Amino acid sequence: MAETVIPVGQEPTAEETHLRHHFATPAQQMDAATLGMWTFLITEVLFFGGMFAAYAIYRGMYMDAFASTSEFMNVVLGGTNTAVLICSSLTMALGVRAAQLSNRKQLQLFLVLTMIFGTIFLVIKGFEYHAKWVEHLVPGFNFHYPIPQFERHAQILFFLYFCMTGMHALHMIVGLGLLSYLLIQATRKVFSATYYAPVEMIGLYWHFVDIVWIFLFPLLYLIGHRK
Amino acid sequence: MATLAHGTPEIAAEEPVNYLNVEHGWKSWLFTTDHKRIAVLYLISITLMFFVGGFMAVLFRINLLEPEGIFSAETYNRLFSMHGIVMVFFFLVPSIPATLANFLIPIMIGAKDLAFPRINLLSWYIYVVGAILTMYAVVRGGVDTGWTFYAPYSSTFSNSYVLAAAFGVFTAGFSSILTGLNFIVTVHKMRAPGMTWSRLPLFVWSNYATGLIQVLGTPVLAIVLLLLAFERIAHVGIFDPNIGGDPILFQHLFWFYSHPAVYIMILPGMGVISEIVSCFSRKRVFGYNFVAFSSMAIAVLSFVVWGHHMFITGESVYTGLAFSFLSFMVAVPSAIKVFNWTATMYKGSVSFDTPMLYAFGFIGLFTIGGLTGLFLATLATDVATHGTYFVVAHFHYVMVGGMVMAFLGGIHFWWPKMTGRMYSEAWSKFAALIVFIGFNLTFFPQFILGYMGMPRRYHAYPPEFQALNVLSSAGASVLGVGYIIPMIYLLWSLKYGPKAGPNPWGAAGLEWQTQSPPTTFNFDETPIVTEEAYNYGPLEEVIG
Ligand code: HEM
Ligand SMILES: [Cu+2]
User: Does residue B156 contact residue B233 with C-beta atoms inside 8 Å?
Assistant: First the structure.
């Protein structure tokens, strides 16, 4: 299977577990990393939470204007992107498993697949942004709403749309950077059953970013389809 | 910085290896991952920021000597805004957590370092970038929105450097998040064998609770500042009602962070006081469990009272009632602490060393600050006192009378541990007294001014308020002297102070069992804890 097969009963060296000096055991190091990552993800929830709160309040206040915007959202592209991200989460999870099994070839494969899905998502998003620009739906820079009585309030939805999906896309780009780092490290044979914390942690991050999208899609694209 | 480590060559030769003299040169500081060195870096940076913020206070207190003011209204607005921004985000929020707690938490729990040493260093760099951005706003002419950045003034009308200052605060927020995250993980995962949760020093408990607030609150500040920046740059309405937004939303999001943030600015101080009071009463803290639990209760309750800042700015009466009630609730755990410190001293062998003087100051002034918080949390009285100097006096009693006192007390308590040197006892007691007198002279008149109706944030005032304003400005100069004296004798002690042993106060706690200053990894061997915190016996046995 892999390069670093550990004979049963023999402890891995500090070198193999990448144990840092201030931890007593690899298990402690892994626990700390996991708790740290989850704590970080909670801060992310609150970060996005501010925007979700704004969304909830304005949606309550200006329901009709918000519903009218769904006409201008491309549900097909948004739906495709949802599917793409779900697939990327699957490949990411498989990648973590491959790392745990010291299967380097598979790890590399799944990392590359995840990155491809991530890139597809961003490209599709780019097309959508472009379409919004052409249709004069970019608040602040180029906004002219076809339904005049909703212009002021529809603008808020589009502002939130760009803030929320933009923040999300930024997280995707950061994620792609992290995945490239994992790929390089994987090629250097760093990961094995004794040391796979970075793969698992970045995996958690990637799933989190996917989940944000799972909320964004219905909230931003399907408002008018409610009735 | 190098002077910290060197001393005179002879002394350096005698001194055992410690975290200060183990390596030399600026690189060994700027690339360090040792929590103790990072704490020193933070200490230097926040002290600089404290004097920047203090300088602005000097200027606007001079302005207030004359009823018609000395500077223009614009200048005055910028002075008090930059004072608030610098003091809150660049001094008070990192004050105890990033310095004392950074230094002490790993030692107190018997660990070699925080869980994420490199993230700890990163947080300092992020802080510095945030400070530079904010200082850029200052030198370009400052910002005039108040530390609260209320929209739509900040997003549409102000023509000061709002963006630079807001990005500075935004950036510094991430350094605060990383500090909090590091503490939470460290306390969960890095405790030495035998260091159970119920044996943790209360200082660790209170910083753990602070960490929770930093992690849960600060991201909301980040997003609200980001939305504000978008509105200002692109003129899209999210807060400005003229373009479709709602300014109340800004206030809700801002105070959702900023009320819990006031507890970031007091909880660590409460932790310091618990340590000091128990050491100088030579008794276990009365009701340990209650004090530890009250820190957690404060952290939780602090998230549900933000509406008390908005009683008269567009909140329904029923919402106001709920927030008023909850604000009364949050005073309960604070009061528990005050009662328990007092009970700790009761029948203890109280001594009056400098740290204890600051602790006395804290307890008295925090009590006044907290009780006036209750006046403000009462709907009817807040209608009269909102937006007056009464509020200013309230929060300075808790922030300056409370937190800055605790910070100074903590610095005096752990200075021998951090530097291995003792400072002048006479001078330090004198300075503590000056700080206490200066503080009360400065801020007590502001309660009266506020009660008489003087609004905050104006550069001019009716002549009948002059006497109290002059008193306040005079007090501020006394207070300023009180802050400069410790700067002098503490720096002096680095070179000339007598050497401190590992445990000059005869205090309990793991940090006093290792050498002063500690070695890079704090302990030669990971300690095994067998007793509860504050296990004080007779004095003579332990002083070293
Ligand atoms: C005993 C608990 C406390 C209660 C019930 C309380 C209550 C209040 C209330 C009701 C206000 C709003 C007054 C107004 O604007 O009309 C206020 C303002 C303020 N409080 Fe407190 N407070 C408490 C403790 C603290 C602590 C511990 C701190 C900081 C360390 C603090 C810092 C502040 C600040 C900075 C403001 C003013 C914010 C601004 O408008 O610029 N408070 N407090
Ligand atoms: Cu508050």
Answer: no
- Confirm whether B235 is domain-assigned: yes
Residues B143, B78 contacting (CB under 8 angstroms): yes
Q: What is the pTM of this model?
A: 0.94
Comparing A219-223, B4-8, B58-62, B303-307, the range with the smallest average pLDDT is B4-8
CA B227 to CA B450: how far, in whole Å?
Answer: 33
- Domain span at residue B278 reads 26-512
Tens digits of per-residue pLDDT, B470-507?
Answer: 999 999 999 999 999 999 999 999 999 999 999 999 99
**Which residue reads 């639990």 in tokens?**
B293
Classify burial at B462, counting beta carbons within 10 Å of its beta carbon; exposed 0-12, middle 13-18, buried 19 or more: exposed
Residue of B nearest to A158 (CA): B236
List of residues 6+ apart from B316 with CB closer than 8 A: none
- Which residue of A19, A20, A21, A22 to mutate against B (max B Cβ within 10 Å)? A22
Beta bridge partners of B388: B455
- The letter for the amino acid at B154 is S
- Taking CA atoms, B293 is separated from A83, B202, B206, B243, B300, in Å, by 46, 10, 9, 46, 11
> Which ipTM was obtained for this model?
0.92
User: Ligand 1 pocket, B262 CB below 6 A?
Assistant: yes
Q: Is the dihedral angle over the CA atoms B338, B341, B347, B353 positive or is it negative? A: negative
Q: Using a 6 Å cutoff on CB, does residue B400 contact ligand 1?
A: no
CB neighbours of residue A205 within 10 Å: 19
In b/e form, how buried is each residue of B186-209, taking b as 16+ CB within 10 angstroms? bbbbbbbeebeeebbbbbbbbbbb
Nearest to B472 by CA among B418, B392, B535: B392
B219: preceding bond cis by omega (within 30 degrees)? no
Number of domain units in chain B:
1
Confirm whether B14 is domain-assigned: no
Q: How far is the CA of B307 from the centre of ligand 2 (A)?
A: 8
> Mind listing the domains of chain A with CATH numbers?
54-222 (1.20.120.80)
Instruction: Give the 3-state secondary structure percentages of chain B, helix then strand then coil, rounded to 5.
Output: 70, 0, 30
Average pLDDT across chain B, whole number: 94
The C-alpha atoms of residue A101 and residue A196 are separated, in whole angstroms, by 10
CATH number of the domain that residue B182 is part of: 1.20.210.10
- Residue A13's pLDDT band, with cuts at 50, 70 and 90, is confident
